[in-house]
Amino acid sequence: MEMTDPEINMVWQSFDYPGNTLLPGMKLGRNLVTGMEWYISAWKSTDDPAPGEYMERLDSHGYPQFFMWKNSSIVYSVGPWNGIGFSSSPKNKPTIYYSFEFVINQQEIYFKYELNEPLPTRIVINQAGLVDQLTWIERSRSWLLYVGTQADSCDRFALCGPYAKCNINNSPPCDCLQGFEPRYPNQWYEADWSSGCVRKTSLTCNQDGFLKLTGIKMPDTRHSWYNQGMNLEECKKMCLADCNCTAYSNLDVRNGGSGCLLWFGQLIDIRKLSHNEQDLFVRVAASELGNDPTLYHFLILF
What we know:
Radius of gyration: 21 Å
CATH architecture of the largest domain: 3-Layer(bba) Sandwich
Strand order of the largest sheet: 21-23-22-25-19-26
CATH topology of the largest domain: Hepatocyte Growth Factor
Number of helices: 2
Shape: globular
Strand content: 35-45%
């Protein structure tokens, strides 16, 4: 639906206000010129369309990403866009039925999806803050769940604190990254992981190395910097030259990888995934990389 003034200027259109439903062609993000924000928010109840507790919206600090909010608290992140999909959803990729687009320019930042086939579909956020993709089945004249959110404890934002990763197949699920140890061991072993981990060995800047992590969800990118024109080697050199850089990766995993994403400050919200094409290189003291030749396949030394 659109509304115009007598001079045929657009004054309102329903696609700018998705409510709890994102349809093909709708944008989720922000217009940087007008300040218009496109986000989805759960209904208060199944029969009350007033805004509920949950909403998914863009955060444009550092490399843009989407957060699920419950009132004023972040509860979940889909991770940064990697050129194919979002980091936390390696299986949620374009198919013959639909395609994804994530746009960043000086005017706007947004995500949207388009249909490649005449298959009625919609994305809906429910009262529990879960996002489901539904497809219309004409034979039964009903909406069928096509892709659903299956939240687990590792989906909780920053559950394991800084410099730790969450693995839902482990018990307990939180573990420090190689080269790190619990900040407060007593709390850690009592299942309070919120303070995370700290380095075992202090960094020495240009004498440091990088630990390669594969098959993970990328960390929170609010304190990051990115460049779409650089390659991974240039990215590595830039990170090593800046003592405040804590990790780096390619921005886009397509066609062998391109672009540069640098992290500054603590790394949080990392989780183990069964598969992900995007590798993360975490800065550690060279002594933490060890002398075991079997590790060299996973490590980059300088």
